[in-house]
Design goal:
alpha+beta; six-stranded antiparallel sheet
Length: 277
């Protein structure tokens, strides 16, 4: 009996620490649960989601219709904002003219399809047309540039550009593929662009594609369809010896259900100088 009691005491003594540990663990669990403490999950990198394809912007530049046709031209995104003070404006003009002259000087039809970038086309016209140059110089927005033009630097730069143009522009011709099809509606919209056609000698007119090009939105649904109508001509009223190619975008809006509006309209136009036939 004495041995049994001793054994019982030892068993109870051994169980007491275990019971205390269980009570402490239960109390700790209660504190975590009651106190609202949470154990953070390990940080895991979120799986990379495939980016939703962005809609491609419609090509708003001159269409490329043949091997020797000018490719689309884009303005350098690094181009600084146009300064508003006369000295800064003059320096900006001189830089743009210099860039245009460099493009003309290095032009090689075997290496590049365009003569100058689209953003420089206006300087090309001012270089070869005294009338266009005078209109620019006397406009309200740029009237003060002459005050910051010592030694007539702007005209000197434009004259140098004109000299380069005279060597390269006569052999710069539009590709025939831009005129290979005819569309009476599109060509009428093209001719409506001009205020006076009496002085125009038309060398070619037509559209670059028999069918329509489809512009789609971000969901892949049609927004409208379009084609380019083009005309290559010489205007006897010009004060320079070169020809023009005017290209207009003709559009039809999407009406739903696979159909398009019956209205066809002109949305944009581009005028580029070329050598004459």
């Amino acid at each position: 009996m004495i041995a049994f009691k001793a054994t019982k005491k030892r068993s109870i003594s051994a169980c007491l620490p275990a019971a205390v540990l269980l009570l402490l663990a239960h109390a700790a669990y209660g504190q975590i649960r009651i106190g609202g403490i949470t154990v953070p999950n390990p940080n895991r990198a979120n799986p990379t989601k495939a980016e939703k394809p962005q809609p491609q912007p419609e090509n708003t530049e001159r269409p490329s219709d043949a091997k020797n046709e000018p490719a689309a031209k884009t303005e350098n995104s690094a181009t600084a904002a146009v300064p508003q003070d006369p000295p800064g404006l003059l320096n900006y003009f001189l830089h743009e003219i210099s860039e245009a002259k460099n493009d003309v000087d290095i032009y090689d039809p075997a290496e590049r399809q365009y003569l100058v970038k689209a953003v420089q086309e206006e300087w090309l016209l001012r270089a070869v047309s005294p009338r266009a140059r005078a209109e620019h110089a006397t406009s309200d927005h740029y009237a003060e540039w002459r005050k910051a033009n010592p030694g007539n630097q702007l005209d000197a730069a434009l004259d140098a550009l004109a000299a380069s143009v005279s060597k390269k522009l006569p052999s710069y011709k539009p590709g025939v593929a831009a005129f290979q099809f005819h569309n009476p509606v599109a060509e009428k919209l093209l001719m409506d662009y001009f205020k006076n056609t009496a002085t125009m000698k038309i060398h070619r007119i037509g559209v670059g594609s028999a069918g329509w090009l489809i512009q789609k939105d971000s969901d892949g649904l049609p927004s409208y369809r379009y084609k380019f109508a083009n005309i290559y001509f010489r205007d006897s009223s010009d004060d320079h010896p070169y020809c023009h190619r005017v290209s207009v975008r003709v559009k039809q809006d999407y009406a739903g259900g696979g159909t398009y509006s019956t209205e066809i309209y002109r949305s944009s136009a581009d005028d580029e100088l070329f050598g004459c036939p």
